[in-house]
Structures are given as structure tokens and as C-alpha cells.
Amino acid sequence: MQVVKYAFQQHGDARGQLVALEELRDIPFEIKRVYYVYDTSVGVRRGFHSHRTLQQILICIHGSCKVLLDNGKEKKIVSLEKPYEGLYVPQNMWREMYDFTPDAVLMVLASEYYAEGDYIRDYEEFLKTCAGE
Ligand code: TYD
């Protein structure tokens, strides 16, 4: 499995850093939705789903966390530790996020509006989807 991790351009100067993200330029899709996860309780693991069509970029803009990616055949663990790093998560990819530091803010850029019907939350069903590909 190829993990696609972006290192976004940092516009740094003596004042500090700034990262700008533009759809279809820095981000490989039109951004329809942004959400972020924070104040995550110690030991929490979340996600546990794949998406039929949704693509996402995960950016831990503060603190750090880990992401387990699973395409049904192979699993990879990716650490997100820098505010300029983005992890591309395509459709049909099972994901679990964990090891959040108490200060972690995980921001997600999403290619679609929120739609419960796009989720596959059952792992066996996810595996069947992969087998059909
Ligand atoms: P959930 O799917 O459990 O998050 P995770 O995948 O990180 O475990 O979402 C938590 C709640 O937030 C759930 O009630 C659905 C709601 N939600 C929205 O309303 N809009 C969104 O864009 C997202 C991602 C979640």
C-alpha cells in the first residue's frame, strides 16, 4: 500500500510559520467540508470506518496522533506530528485514529458533505467491498 503524505509549503519568517491550503492545488480535491477533533480523552481510538466515495486529508495541526490505514489487504501506521504534514486517505480505506496527545487537534479536509450513507462501519462489510474491487 502506498501511503500518500504531503509536506505542505511553510511560509516561515522571523514571526513564525504559516501554511496555506488551496483546493485542487495543495489538496487533490474540492474541499466541501472541514472538521476537527480535539480534547480527545486519553486512550481513545476513533474512526473505525471506511467511506464509499469520500476522500480526506488529515492534518494534526497541534500535538500528535497516529492513524492506522487498512486497505483490506495491508495495514500501515502513520504518525502525524507536524502542522505542515497531511495524510491523504482515499475512498475504501479503513481508518482508526489513536495515541492522541492531550493537546492534539486533528483537522480533516473532506471532499464531500457529511453523509451517513457514505460510511461503512462494519469491518466484514468493508472487507467484502475490497474483495469486489
Ligand atoms: P464520528 O463519525 O463518530 O467521528 P470519528 O469518525 O472520528 O469517530 O462522528 C462523531 C459525531 O459527529 C457523530 O454524531 C456524527 C457527527 N459528525 C457530523 O455531524 N459531521 C461531520 O462532518 C462528522 C465527521 C461527524
Task: Please characterize this protein's 3D structure.
This protein is mainly beta. It has one helix and ten strands. The strands form two sheets. Strands 1-7-4-9-2 form a five-stranded antiparallel sheet, with no helix packed on it. Strands 6-5-8-3-10 form a five-stranded antiparallel sheet. It is globular. The protein starts with a strand and ends with a helix. The relative contact order is 0.28. The model has no long low-confidence stretch (mean pLDDT 97). Bound molecules: thymidine-5'-diphosphate. The site of thymidine-5'-diphosphate has 6 residues, from β2 and β3.
What's the layout of helices and strands?
Layout (H helix, E strand, L loop, with lengths): L4 E3 L25 E5 L8 E6 L4 E7 L2 E6 L4 E6 L4 E5 L4 E5 L6 E6 L8 E2 L2 H9 L2
Antiparallel strand pairs: 1-7, 2-9, 3-8, 3-10, 4-7, 4-9, 5-6, 5-8
Bound molecules: thymidine-5'-diphosphate (TYD).
Broad structural category: mainly beta
Proportion of residues in extended strands: 35-45%
Helix content: under 10%
Describe the oligomeric state of these chains in a short phrase: single chain
Q: Which ranges are low-confidence, i.e. pLDDT below 50, for 5 or more consecutive residues?
A: none
Please tell me what the overall shape is: globular
The unique ligands bound to this protein are: thymidine-5'-diphosphate
Largest sheet: 5 strands, antiparallel
What is the succession of H and E elements?
EEEEEEEEEEH
Mean pLDDT: 97
* Spatial extent as radius of gyration: 15 Å
Distance from first to last alpha carbon:
15 Å
Q: Strands across the major sheet, in which order? A: 1-7-4-9-2
Strand tally, please?
10
**Count of runs of 4 or more consecutive helical residues:** 1
